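Cross-check.
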Amino acid sequence: MAEPPGVIDLDGADDPRVAEYSRLTDAALRRRTDAAHGIYLAESSAVVRRALAAGHHPRSFFLAHRYLDSMADVFAAHPSVPVYTGTDEVLEAITGFHLHRGALAAMDRPAPLSPDEVLAGARRVAVLENVSDHTNLGAIFRSAAGLGVDAILVSPEAADPLYRRSIRVSMGTVFSIPWARVGEADGRGRAAWPAALEQLRAEGFTVAALELSESAVELDDPALRDHERLALVLGAEGPGVTSAALAACDLHVKIPMAPGVDSLNVAAASAVAFWELRARA
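Predicted model, tokenized:
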């Protein structure tokens, strides 16, 4: 099959046109925040396709020769977007890892949604407080998208949902579930965290924290199913929900556990809670 127009064959690792893909180790990306560049990086052919289906705009594509045919329809739909390709050795020298999931794409970040936009019509909302591990964050998004959560709010110290690892672990579901960052004091009267939880209450949500506490009720308590609008606050692995956020919640809930085990990983716990607390009518 002939190469599509716009294909650029790379012959070295120092080409400035692919600086966005350079040395994409996790450590390097922690030092270089994608948000500062106004882009995010979609990794794997499936994730690239989901980003495009969500209406996100590509800046460029980056993939090995052997994947060109499988993405030909994508390139045809975006004829003005450059397609960078090369041997496995050249691409690995650029990114710092072996590309085995198909294509990468540098995508323009979409305009952030406001909390009002995210909450409109939502019945089940996940609130991620200080969840800084990108793997956990991506896994929570994937469970939320599959188990009936309508929207996600993330606190100021939570990780970036559009970080490369978060996107990959979520299998691109970060593009399909609306989310917004809340609680960043900006000098214009917007509430700082966790006072931002008051907005949920003002919108008619019952705000529950998934946390072991003396007052926590068990997740399968039938009374929890009676809430028309419910927001579930999840804390970071280890520290859990902060004391300030716990005080701002209406109630605390816990997952009944077998003797000798007190908790689950936050991503696993989120899936259990999303299923049990799903809207049933």
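The chain has two domains: 7-108, 115-276. Residues 14 and 194 are 45 Å apart (CA to CA). Passed to J.P. for a second look.
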